[in-house]
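Memo subject: From amino acid sequence to discrete backbone structure tokens
Keywords: amino acid chain, backbone geometry, structure tokens, three-dimensional fold.
Body of memo: The sequence and its backbone structure tokens, given next.
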Amino acid sequence: MERYPTEISSILAPLVIVQGLGQDGLPEGTVHNPDSATSSSTDKTLTTDKSWKLPSSNRKESSIFCDLDDPTLKDNYEIIDRKIPMVQAASGLELVSLLNSYNVGDNYWLLDNNKEYMKQLNYNIKFIGNRFVLPKTNKRTPPVASPASIPTSPVLGSSALSSPSIGPSPSIFTSASTKTYSSSILSPFNADSEFFNSLLPIEWIQRYREQRPFVFISVHELATKDDNIDLTVADTELANEISRIKSQCTSNNVKHLSIILCSKSIALNPELDERVAQLRKVTSLPARSGLLFLPAGTQREVENFAASVAHLIKPWAVEYFNALEKKFKKRTLQNLEYPEKSWLARQALKSAIAAEMKGISDYSTKAMEYCYEKLIDATRQLDMLISSWVIVTRLIRNLTFISKT
């Protein structure tokens, strides 16, 4: 039985990054088990099937690994570093558990099969540590490599699979004008990329599941008198960090949401409201959609707070992927050496994935159906002397996994 990467077999859901509640949602100082459920299932389940192994994007062997040690690539990433310690309030652990109830992760099925998908709030939520590396919206410079020596994918262009590429042979793409057409590492027009002349790498899906969130949620704790520190200085440091993270996110087309927790209640500490109001003023974040405050309260209040966060960010996900769809549809094929049918299939697949990220609906289903048609058209141009039937069947089966409900 063939194994498939989670990028293909799992439910597509928009990526949410949460910083401040501990790596994998565990308290700071916790020893992490690499074989735990929070580890990358791609690396765990596919180790026995070399043809379908897709390394996690945080590993050096990944094609989309963010190599911060390479000085030539440092301008391609936005490094979001947290200077303030992780949240210690008890409500932090409760919030992790409640947010995970909306987290589909690598699941193959819906969280609640008895509920209509569009009525569910499904996200791919990742809890991170003090550092997050966000690829900038501009294209990165790929490593230099010989396109003729690197195999491309028979399905979506993944480097993990070896087979002939889709379209003309690589040799006709080696002109200087073609090599400079695109600098994206995932572009089929980049003659220095391992995905040269492919259709769509699986790593393209992986990037939106692991590296490119639509929202970045930073969680901080409001200091109290019990901490024996200067509260004015602490609030100033907190405001500066929130403002910096907000600026880094917005400059890269990522929504930012700040959540402030406190171990004290407002009833016994009315000055907390004034301090939070000042934080909102300094950071220019609105009360209902920019900087949310959760003081100590009842379990029901924490549950309602988590639900409000899940509902708040849903329109942001739709807006984010709507913009992506529009961008895909506006693009035209400028390299005439690349097969037009492959280009149409590539763009249709991108649009269909973006549509499903917003939620499975009649619209996303029709987008997948249109994608099927374009993929079938693209397969008709393959050279039938190079085992193309294997390529065709895998290509269609891959899309079947992606479009399942």
In short: Residues 6-138+210-320 form one domain. Residues 299-330 form the longest helix (32 residues).
